[in-house]
Design a protein that fits this description.
Length: 178
């Protein structure tokens, strides 16, 4: 079974429990926090993924590093560790966030620009996207100096590329054909 299938099943089970309890947003934030620490802390990742370290020691480590987790999420993480599915945790967090976003009609949008955008520009963009898509928008701004100028907007699985880099590439292709 693929890691993505496993993650989808675990995330779905956690989502059903979270929806019953009304804690989906809280659990999503906690699970993302665990996933971010896994991504950022090499030593934590090494210990959690190590096959020879006992499950109970891994569970205690998670409890120590994340003391304020909701009991449901704590139990979920203990189950994941007991079943040896810790490598799928980042994908579980992503799948769980997708389920929460779908339920709450939130569209994750990633705006990439050559330089950091001001809060007023981001707020205006968020407002326009919300009006256009008729959904709530969760906006994330990334900076990529390679774009030179303009924006690249990722709406779910759609990408709107209005960057200067893309325009120059298109111009180059057009000139080659001429």
């Amino acid at each position: 079974m693929s890691e993505q299938t496993i993650a989808r099943r675990y995330a779905s089970a956690l989502f059903h429990i979270a929806r019953e309890q009304g804690t989906a947003g809280e659990l999503a934030a906690g699970l993302e926090r665990v996933s971010n620490v896994l991504a950022d802390d090499r030593d934590f990742r090494r210990v959690l993924y190590h096959q020879l370290i006992p499950v109970r020691a891994k569970q205690k480590l998670v409890d120590t590093i994340f003391p304020g987790l909701a009991p449901v999420l704590k139990n979920f993480l203990h189950l994941v560790l007991a079943r040896g599915r810790e490598r799928a945790l980042p994908e579980m967090a992503a799948q769980f966030r997708r389920l929460v976003d779908q339920a709450e009609h939130i569209l994750p949008v990633e705006v990439t620009s050559a330089t950091p955008l001001g809060e007023d520009i981001l707020a205006g963009l968020k407002e326009r996207l919300a009006a256009t898509t008729r959904q709530h928008i969760r906006l994330a701004n990334r900076v990529n100096p390679d774009l030179i100028g303009g924006l690249m907007i990722r709406l779910g699985d759609r990408v709107l590329d209005a960057s200067l880099k893309k325009k120059l590439e298109l111009l180059g292709e057009h000139l080659k054909k001429a």
